[in-house]
Amino acid sequence: MFRKIAVAVVLTLSVSGVSYAGLDAVKGLGKDLGKEAASTAKQGALSAVTKKLKKVQNEKGPIKFKTGKAEVDPACDKTMTAIAAIMTDYPGFHVQVDGHTDNVGKPEANMKLSQDRADAVVKYLVDKKGVAADRLSAKGFGDTQPIADNKSKAGQAKNRRVDFTVTKM
């Protein structure tokens, strides 16, 4: 509402001949509002992509690997297909695949394993699902970002996961 009032005042001054510079300010304001609207729309799309990627593993199943290995389980193909479809539906975004492990084993080994698994997901999406390689990256976090208590098997299972971080291209 404030912007409408400011525009009306500037237009009134411009019409009365008091300030032609005011008209240039209105033109600039329109450009800023257009940029703001585009930014808001892109932010909304970014949020939508993030939500869809988080939701897909709940609906189609988590991305799984054999214990101690970095090969994507072929049973996860439905999940990977859904992820690729989301990427196709939202072409203006980059997705970082975030690999995580539980705290069993040495931290250095967990960091390497989480990176290898994130790399494996990227490779699967590029090679088998046709996602453009420049739209994906991989980052391993090892056991540094647990979402559950590592003292129980159930907690450890929750911590062995793949997440996604979505950013603008």
What is the topological layout?
Elements: H1 2-15, H2 21-60, H3 77-89, E1 93-100, H4 107-127, E2 136-140, H5 153-159, E3 161-168
Parallel strand pairs: 1-2
Antiparallel strand pairs: 1-3
Descriptive notes:
It comes from Geomonas propionica. Pfam families: OmpA. Its main location: membrane. The chain is an alpha+beta fold and 169 residues long. It has a single domain (43-168), classed as 60s Ribosomal Protein L30, Chain: A (2-Layer Sandwich), CATH 3.30.1330. The chain has five helices and three strands; from the N terminus they run H-H-H-E-H-E-H-E. The chain has helices at 2-15, 21-60, 77-89, 107-127, 153-159, and strands spanning 93-100, 136-140, 161-168. A three-stranded mixed sheet has the order 2-1-3. Helix 1 (2-15) runs antiparallel to helix 2 and helix 2 runs antiparallel to helix 3. The longest helix is centred in the first third of the chain and has 40 residues, at 21-60. The model is unreliable at 1-27 (pLDDT under 50).
Q: Give the helix level as a range of percent.
A: 55-70%
Oligomer: single chain
Estimated share of beta-strand residues: 5-15%
- How would you sum up the global shape? globular
How many individual helices?
5
Tell how many strands the DSSP assignment holds.
3
- Widest sheet: strand order? 2-1-3
Q: Looking at CATH, which topology would you report?
A: 60s Ribosomal Protein L30, Chain: A
Largest sheet: 3 strands, mixed
CATH superfamily caption: OmpA-like domain
- Count of discrete structural domains: 1
Which structural class should the secondary elements be placed in? alpha+beta
Instruction: Specify the CATH architecture.
Output: 2-Layer Sandwich
Q: Outline the low-pLDDT stretches.
A: 1-27
Q: In sequence order, what are the helices and strands, one letter per element? A: HHHEHEHE
The CATH class name reads Alpha Beta
Average pLDDT confidence is 83
| Rg computed from alpha carbons, rounded to a whole number of angstroms | 24 Å
Main location: membrane
Keywords: Cell outer membrane, Membrane, Signal
Signal peptide: 1-21
Subcellular location: Cell outer membrane
